[in-house]
Structures are given as structure tokens and as C-alpha cells.
User: Fold this.
Amino acid sequence: MPIGDRQPAPAAEQPPPELPRGIISSRFKASAEEPAVEAPRGLVSTRLRPSLEIGVRPLRCLVEDGQVMLEFEVDLFNSGTAPARTIVAEASLLNASATQDQELAAFFSRSVPAGEPLDTIPPMKRMTMTSRVVAPRTAIQEYDVGGRKAFVPVLAFNAVYEWSNGKGQTSTAYLVGRETNGEKLGPLRLDSGDREMRGLGARPLPVGVRR
Assistant:
């Protein structure tokens, strides 16, 4: 779900790749006075340019007969040395699977949909938003875990932004599941009727784009 309303220039003579099956994409909007989440640790740029980092904190998952909703808090942190302007961002939900790397690469290479740009983020400042993605049950890949139906969602983010003499992109993805206070996350149940799940955690995946 994008956060801005700016349409990037189309790639020369190349149509945008199709969104793979199983990815649900939607724009997201900023919410007022949301508490900040901890930004991912990273290098601070020494050049006069912005550098966006994306952190996420899943809040709850609502499973219903016809759809699954995942609500989350996302943090955009400018670790650079110049303001990030004309920021447009998008979040997508897909299934953890053997083809997730190819699906993520296709999502990261797409043009971010047009939308109202976010406000400028000054150097070493952050913007925190609460949003959600909703997927029909038919798009959710179910797994059998000990005789129970479960799923493992992946939240992907793609943000483009500008500064005085350039353009940048930050894309990243997180595995989401039940927090176990260990290295691994627990899968989310699908077989117990309508239910709300909290106590979720996220782990970054070793994929992404930084430029």
C-alpha cells in the first residue's frame, strides 16, 4: 500500500513485471501521533543524501471466513545527511514459500503506484505509521502443522524517494509469525474459526534493494 501519490518514470521500452500470484498489494497512509518503533540499525551515510531504513512491528492478525487481515506499524527512518522528499511507499502481503525470493524480486522491481507523497523526513528523523493489508482466504497458502492448518505471511515494503539531485529506493521484507522469544517464529493458525491473534513478531529476510 503506497504512501504517496507520485508516479515514477516508466522503464524504457520495458513493461512492468506482473505481480506474482499470492501477493496482495495496497497503499498505506500515515496515522497521527503513533508511537515510534525501534529503527533497524544501519550505517549512517556520509554523503549529502538521504537513506531510508524500514522497520516493522506487526500488531495483530484477524482471521475470518473470507479474508485475513494483518495490521502493522511501520517505521521510516532517514539515516542519511539530507532530507528525504516525495516519499511514496507500498506494502504487500505474500506467502512464505519456495518461490518467495522470485516473487519479492518481482515486487521490488515494480513501479510504486501513484499516490499522495509523504511529508519530508529530515536527516536522523523518523515517521511512524499504522496500516494493514487484507487478503482473501483464497490467496493464503495453507500448511499442515501437526494436523492443524496454518500459514506463514511475509510482509514486503517498497519505498522510493527523492532529494535535491537524485532518487533512491529502499525495499525490504519481513517474515511474520507468533512470537516465541526465540530465533524462530510460530505459524499462525487458520483452522479455529474467526479469531484475532496478537503477540506477533517479525524477522527480516536477507533480501532487498538499497540505492
Summary: The two ends are 21 Å apart (CA to CA). Helices lie at 100-109.
